[in-house]
Amino acid sequence: MANQGIQIKLDNECPLQSDYQDLLASILEEDHDANVLQYETFCQSFHIIAAYDQGKLVGLGRAVEQMDGSKSGSSACELTVLQQYRNREVDSYMRKLLSVR
Question: Which CATH code fits 6-99?
């Protein structure tokens, strides 16, 4: 399996703030202009997903309800994944898990 060793958790709990800060620092190192949500924003979300590689947080996402005029809103995903994990389809798996919640 291509993602052996990577765990993706859809447990609706925020990761530790220290893990989030490490992820944020790595993302901003890759792209100084990255648009990253604040930790508190993730923690207030109902559906949270996190990806870990050997205990290190490498991706974080949430489902966001969007009102589209119908009785029930549609949902979109907001994901933040380290660049070196995108070619391993971590973001794709995270998006799929959030969409079937």
Answer: 3.40.630.30
